[in-house]
Amino acid sequence: MATKSVFDVPTEQWAQVVEENDVTYKKIPVPKPGPDEALVHILYSGVCHTDLHAMRGDWPLKHKTQLVGGHEGIGVVVAKGDLAKGVDIGDYVGIKWLNGSCLSCAFCINGDEPQCPDALLSGYTVDGTFQQYATGKAMHLTQIPKDCDLSAAAPILCAGLTVYKGLKESGARPAQFVAVIGAGGGLGSLAIQYAKAMGLRTIAVDAGEVKGKFCRSLGADAYFDFTKSNDLVKDIKAATPDGLGPHAALVIAAKEDPFHQATEYVRPRGTVVCIGMPKEAQIKASVFDVVVRMLSIKGSYVGNRADANEAVEIFRAGLVKAPVTVVPLSKLSEVFDAMVSGDIIGRYVLDTSK
Questions:
Q1: pLDDT, position 2
Q2: For the Enoyl reductase (ER) domain, which residue ranges apply (predicted)?
Q3: CB of 143 within 8 A of CB of 309?
Q4: CA distances from 260 to 50, 285, 287 (A)
Q5: Helix ranges restricted to H, the chain
Q6: Which of 25, 81, 104, 346 has the fewest CB atoms below 10 angstroms from its CB?
Q7: At what angle do helices 49-56 and 332-341 cross, to 10 degrees?
Q8: Cα 151 to Cα 350: distance, rounded to the nearest angstrom
Q9: How far apart are CA 349 and CA 224, in angstroms?
C-alpha cells in the first residue's frame, strides 16, 4: 500500500530508547506507517508513571525490546496509509496508551476497546511517543482542536482520560464527595479538576504542605497530609458534612496501603476505584465490611475513544487546566529520577524539538 504525505519526513530522528532498564537518548530510524496507520510528528509528550514501570519491568506484562516509551503524544499527521480513515494530513492528533484494537471483537463492538485481546499499547507493546515521529492506528487517534495549548493538552491523553474514566466508573453524582489519593501528582491534580467540572466535591490526600496548597488552588474542598495525620481514616470521614465518609475514592497511589485504607473510609455503598498499579501490590478488605456496608471495589483502566473525546473537550472548554513543566526530550532520565523521589507536582511534558 502507498503512503500519502505532503511533508518532508526525515529518515532519522531522536528518541529515548529503553535498554537494560534505563533510557538511552539516541538517533533511530523514522517508522513508516502501515496501511491503516498514520505517522505523527510528535511535538509534545507527557511522562506517565507507567513509563517508569515499563522501563523498570515492574509489571507481569512483557513489553517489546528496544522500547520507545510514551503514550501522551500530541503532534501533526505528516503521512498515512491508503486505508487510514478518520484523519487527514495536517490534523493535530493525540496518540494514547491504546494505540490500536481489532474493532471487531465483543469488547470493541461495545465500546470497551481497552479490553480488546489484541490491543496495542503505545510505549509498551509498540513504540510510543518519546520520539520525534510515531505511528498509530488512525481509528484510535484523538483529534486535538488547534486552539488548544498543545503542551498542556498532552497529559489529557492518559492522565486526564484515566481519571475522567475513573470518576465515571465511581458512579458519584453531583454534590457527592470523592477522595483523591495521590492528589498532588499528574493524575491526581487532573482528577480534582475533572471532579469539579462534573459537579463533585473532593477530599485530596498527598504528602506535604506544598502539595496541599497546590490541591486547594485546583479546587479541592479539603486536604490531608498522610505523613502528619494520626488517623487518616477518621480525618477523611470527618471531612464530609455527615461524617459518613466520601461516596467514592480514586486511589492513584504508588504504594499498597492506601488501597486498603480506602475500604475503611468510604461510606456504606461507597466505591473504591483502583487506578494506581504499585508493583506486586494486593488489595485487602474485610469481607464482613464489604458485605454489610455493601461496598464496591473496582479497577478502572484507560477510557475508550468516546471518553477520550469527552476528556479533551472538557479541557478545550477551559474547565480543566493541566499544570505542566516542559523540559527537553533529552531530559527524560531526570524526570524519572524526580518520579522516584516523589518530587513531581503536576505533570512533566517533553518537548521533542530539544
A1: 54
A2: 20-350
A3: yes
A4: 22, 6, 12
A5: 49-56, 106-109, 150-153, 159-170, 186-197, 209-217, 232-238, 257-265, 287-292, 305-316, 332-341
A6: 104
A7: 100
A8: 8
A9: 27
- Residue 228's region, left for phi above 0, alpha for psi from -120 to 50, else beta, is alpha
- Residue 332's pLDDT band, with cuts at 50, 70 and 90, is very high
Question: What is the C-alpha separation between 116 and 324, in angstroms, rounded?
Answer: 31
Contact indicator for 265, 254 with CB cutoff of 8 Å: no
- Using one digit for the tens of pLDDT, what is the confidence trace for 14-68? 999 999 889 999 999 999 999 999 999 999 999 998 899 889 888 888 888 899 9
Query: Residue 66: which residues within 8 A CB-CB, separation 6 or more?
Result: 17, 18, 19
Grid cell of 326 as nine digits = 516542559
pLDDT of residue 240: 98
> Which run of H or of E encompasses 143?
strand 142-143
What does the pLDDT look like over 105-134, one tens digit per residue? 999 999 999 999 999 999 999 999 999 999
Q: What is the CA radius of gyration of the chain?
A: 20
Is residue 186 within 8 A of residue 312, CB to CB? The reply is: no
Domains and CATH numbers, the chain: 12-157+303-351 (3.90.180.10), 160-299 (3.40.50.720)
Closest by alpha carbon to 131, among 162, 85, 95?
95
Alpha-carbon distance values, 199 to 86, 172, 177, 187, 302 (Å): 33, 10, 10, 18, 22
DSSP annotation of 122: B
Contact 107, 58 (CB under 8 A): no
The Cα 187–Cα 269 span in angstroms is 25
Provide the 3-class DSSP secondary structure of residue 125: coil
- Measured CA angle at 327 (ends 77, 254), to 5 deg: 95
